[in-house]
Amino acid sequence: MEGLISVIVPCYNQAEFLEECLTSVLNQTYSNWECIIINDGSADLTEEVAKKWTKNDKRFKYIYQENKGLSSARNTGLAQAKGEYIQFLDSDDFLDQEKFLKSIKEFSKPQVDIVISDFILFNEATNSLENPYCVLGEHQFNLDSILFEWGEKFSIPIHCALIKSKVLIGYSFPTELKAREDWSLWVFLYKSCIVTIFINEPLAYYRQHDMSLTKNFRLMSLEKIKAIGIVEQLISKEKSLKLYKNHIQEISKEYTVLQNRYFGVLNSRTYRLACFFKNNLISLRKILNRHSK
């Protein structure tokens, strides 16, 4: 039998999606896996759902911890994982039943460290599949692309990857981040000369829903500068300076867009009418106040 795959499933108040997530693990055509479910202090039915699965199949394991965030939950899973390979899988996402088998076959090739598959979106609101938010390709799996194009041109959903556990030795997710924590993982991996195989087939499903952190644009923006501070510890000074320079340029562009919108609103007919009525209302209130005395 081929090597053991450790599936790490952090869950925080997403019991409604956990069933489908774990079903996609159970249905894998490759059977040598363990699935570690980390309940990060959920207040919903996460524990009840998880324990049902551990009762029915011993390959599922359950861990509870006080709420410490996604990075901490993933680190807990990594500490408990026994597999030769690591599969990260957030509790609101799910996998194609062939993902493990097709990925494991690629590891038979010389010196392969990571196998990355393509992905597809699942729209929770419409219950339908949609094209991915970016196009993945082998040309992106290098340090410079990860550093300077991440979030602007592409990003890799973490469950697209099956990773040899040995290349993760020495890594832990930064617990001070509430978003962009997976960026540091990819930088850590690609700062070394690791060998990547790409499966140009969607074997991972990325769920879009209202609770998704990636929809919180303000949080994502605020966390980027913190993430850069963490990532710069992994790379050269030259690349760090370029990273900060690029971020300054991004902020400048965003500021220009917001400034143009602001002046556009100021000069709009709707805004001028609103000011007119507001000023008239203030005048009327003053007159009424004088007459009421």
TrEMBL record:
| Ranges in a coiled coil | none
Ranges where the Glycosyltransferase 2-like domain occurs = 6-168
**InterPro entries linked:** Glyco_trans_2-like (IPR001173), Nucleotide-diphossugar_trans (IPR029044)
Task: Supply the Pfam families for this chain.
Answer: Glycos_transf_2 (PF00535)
Q: Which SUPFAM superfamilies match?
A: Nucleotide-diphospho-sugar transferases (SSF53448)
One term of GO molecular function? hexosyltransferase activity
The record's section on PANTHER family has: GLYCOSYLTRANSFERASE, UDP-GLCNAC:BETAGAL BETA-1,3-N-ACETYLGLUCOSAMINYLTRANSFERASE-LIKE PROTEIN 1
Record protein name field: Glycosyltransferase 2-like domain-containing protein
Q: Which organism is it from?
A: Leeuwenhoekiella polynyae
